[in-house]
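Q: Given only this backbone (156 positions), what sequence would you predict?
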């Protein structure tokens, strides 16, 4: 586990060092999707160069802090729809996602989550991590954060 964490930390450091040494990347905080209420203390996404770091999304009804009813499948579907909404508001699509991090309140829901998740992508799938959490915001069953790359962006 330690070796994995050191490798992950080294990779992140290399990416940041490469980004900062090659050119000064423009940073933009984005909040136009309407997926979440505007009064929350974080941005929908942050753009750094051609990368978009999306905040974690829950299965809430758009513009509210109310989870959809219907269990894991309904929450997972709404979570992914909320991600699609943030991407669309920024001129991107699900096919632009390169990495997702999935947090599940109960790892027993992993299979059910995967069924919904798979329906939002086509191969090749984005890189992904998934882990169990002892609790998620609003008592949600799943939260997903993503990184997307705008392949059409021109380098400065």
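A: Predicted residues:
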């Amino acid at each position: 586990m330690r070796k994995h964490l050191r490798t992950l930390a080294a990779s992140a450091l290399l990416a940041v060092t490469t980004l900062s040494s090659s050119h000064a990347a423009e940073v933009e905080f984005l909040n136009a999707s309407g997926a979440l209420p505007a009064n929350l203390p974080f941005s929908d996404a942050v753009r750094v160069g051609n990368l978009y770091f999306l905040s974690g999304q829950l299965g809430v009804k758009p513009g509210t802090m109310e989870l959809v009813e219907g269990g894991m499948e309904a929450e997972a579907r709404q979570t992914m729809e909320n991600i699609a909404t943030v991407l669309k508001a920024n001129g991107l699509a699900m096919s632009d996602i390169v990495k997702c991090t999935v947090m599940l309140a109960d790892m027993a829901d992993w299979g059910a989550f995967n069924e919904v998740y798979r329906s939002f992508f086509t191969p090749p799938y984005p890189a992904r991590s998934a882990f169990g959490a002892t609790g998620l915001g609003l008592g949600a069953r799943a939260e997903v954060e993503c990184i997307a790359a705008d392949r059409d962006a021109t380098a400065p």
